[in-house]
Amino acid sequence: MQKTALLIEDNEDNLELIRFILEKSGYNTRFAMTGEEGVKQALTNPPDFIILDIQLPDINGLEVIKRIRADHLGKDLPVIAMTSYAMSGDRERLLAAGCTSYIEKPIDPMTVMKQIRAAINESELK
Amino acid sequence: MQIWTFDSPFLPSFFGFQHLLLAYKLEITLSIFFVLTLVTITLFVLEREYRKSIELKLSTSSLITQFNYREKFLAKIPAVRIVFIIGLVGLFLFVLFSYQHYQNQAYTMFFATGIFILNVIGTYFFGSLKRTQQTEHLVNKLHLHIKSTEEAQEELLQAERRLQQQSASLASLAAMQLNKKTSPKVFLRQLVRQSAETLNVGRVSVWLYSEDKKALECDALYDLETQSYSHGQRLNAEDFPTYFAAITASRVVAVDDAGADRITHEFSGEYLPENNVGAMLDATIWQEDEVIGVLCHEHVGETRHWRLDEESYVGSLADLARLAFELDKRQKVETDLIEHQESFESMVQHRTALIENNAKLFRFLVERAPVTILYMNAANEILEMNPEAERVSGYSREYAIGRTYQSLFVPEDTVEEHEHYFFDVMQGSPVQGRDMKIRRADGTTVDISVSRSMELDAEGNPVIISIGQDVSQKKALEASLIRAREAAESADRIKSMFVASMSHELRTPLNSIIGFIGVVLQGMSGKLNAKQSDQLSRAYFSAKHLLSLISDVIDISKIEAGFLETHEEQVDIAELLDEVYYTVEHLIKDKKLAFSIECQKDLVIDTDRKRLFQVILNVVSNALKYTEKGYVHVVVKTESERVLVAVEDTGIGIDTAGLNKLFKPFERIDSHLKIKTLGTGLGLYLTHSILKLLLGGDIAVKSIVGKGSVFTVTLPYHMPKVEAVQMTSVLEP
Fold first, then answer.
1. Looking at the partner chain, which of A20, A94, A106 has a beta carbon nearest the beta carbon of B514?
2. Looking at domain A4-125, does it have CATH number 3.40.50.2300?
3. Interchain proximity B507–A87, CB inside 8 Å
4. CATH classification of B562-716, choosing from 3.40.50.620, 3.40.50.150, 3.30.565.10, 3.30.1330.10?
5. ipTM associated with this complex
6. B700-728: per-residue pLDDT in tens?
7. From A97, which residue of chain B is nearest by alpha-carbon distance?
8. How far apart are CA B54 and CA A90, in angstroms?
């Protein structure tokens, strides 16, 4: 059965890029272009995992993770954070907030899937 | 009647000249008689003369010139007397025998009577002579007695005369001393002269101890014969120990025979013969239980017996000398005292002037000082205030004096606060630069910075001195400064936000570009021909280069603006180096270079992992970039304070000019090899900045052109805390 990924990303180009890579790799995708919408989708219809852009127009990625983790439906969902140009300590903050994995942009199509698969498997092993 | 018979047989036997004797018996008898009579007469004359002489002696009571012959004769009187008696007895016997016949008995009787008479007269004169002689003895004795009495009287007279002279001399010296103008020097000269004249001593001198008490120095010596003074001789104590001991031990030392006496024997070598001294009489001069000198009398010529009165006189002179010194000392003290008094008075005058001057200065300061000065008593009543206080408060000095501080200056809402300050001040803790609001006369308030302390006035009463500064303007300035700072801070924040968002805005489209090109290059959207693939690769790497360029520029601008945040954590160097290796693994493989890492396990330092990674990666990438064949070695060494990461390569090397601009921005080393490499020209500059400004480390390089380079990164075990301006993370709103 194909796994479904929820992509929370406001930039259409990036959304298209990651959607393309995931679907090419055999995953179903859904998307949300705001944080609020993403949280809503994640909790009403939980996907298998979430790919979350940190910079969102309404609420930022940290808040999204906190809200998802606050709900019993979302507390074990693998959430892979994605950010361009992170600052020192951002990674730690994201992981502390409950992020499963962390990917820096720009994404490399050759390596990004390895990272995603690793994150999902790690999450399932828990 | 045998006696009268001249038949006695012994006569012829005794007298051979019996018939001769008998023949001249009358002549013999008469001549003996005559001799005896002559003797008697002589005795008579002698006795008369003798007696007369004694009488004369008695009457004149003067010495009699005695004739020797008579003296001799008188001494033989007993012998003469015996001869005389023998003569008488012989004559009597001769008469008795020679005139034994009765017809001669009348002669016998006659001569016997004559003999008897002679005997009587002779005996009388002998006795008389003897008595006279006894009388003479008596007279002589008497005379001697008288003479000794007279001598004694004479002696007494002389002594009296001497005493008179001595006391006259002492009196004149004492009078001289009373005249305070006489200095001890002059006085001592006078003293030695007087003493020499009074005692008739050849040399009189005063010797004083030297400063170190080791010698006597002659202060004044008077020579009676030449009537002249001299001084300056010196006697070392160690040369004359007995003498020095003697003068220290007694007040007066009298030496009759200087050459023989034990005390002065030490001088007999030179001093005595040189000065022809026969006797010495020394008196010590004392001052406050200490011998300071000697008054020395040296009798020139023979020995001399010093009389008690002379000794006593000399002693008195020594006392006078002592008195002279003490008077002089006292006079000096008096003079000093007067001088001190004078200088003290002038000092007092000077001080008074100074105090007046200070008071003037002080008034001036108080009046002109641009601070408010208040002077209050313990009840906080104003005692004094200065013009600035008048200006600031709006109260006149006349109005304020006598009123309490609280009633004048304290706004109603800060009464308690002020009471508190006053309490502290009265407890002895001064208030320093405390900002207070003060009520002015017109009811407005003014900000004053007040320093207040309690002091004691001249009477010991507590007074409060309050010094204030009008800080209204300062406050206004401060407020505007705070506003300005807030504005600047917000501007910083805006800049920070701008940089952060710029980084995002610039990178977001690039991320997409790189991502999509990557997808297409991977053939995910369909197979590409070789040309398409090559051209897309170029676009891909250009985009990547642009991204790293943007990242570097943003990093540098953040570091320079001081708002690049660091995150300290424990970093295992070996793990970090492995990570670097994986990152550059493809480059190593492409170039077929040897690569090694030499690092001890579990070497952990506290630093910013991301930044350290950036640094090491940059250095290692550079080494690989500029090395075409050979190797790249990474060697980690530890020292007590730091960790060294050396990256050694066998690349093109860097010349001196290159080394100088290596860590400057936008400098790329153009080697003669013209190796085309990708780079922003910011890499080493950024590396250097990160190390120096963020991680507390450094980077150094050694290189030989054509042989290779060694870049050494130095890191502390603990990263310093950098006060970075809080950079707003994209994670925060």
1. A106
2. yes
3. no
4. 3.30.565.10
5. 0.86
6. 999 888 888 999 999 999 888 765 544 44
7. B731
8. 164
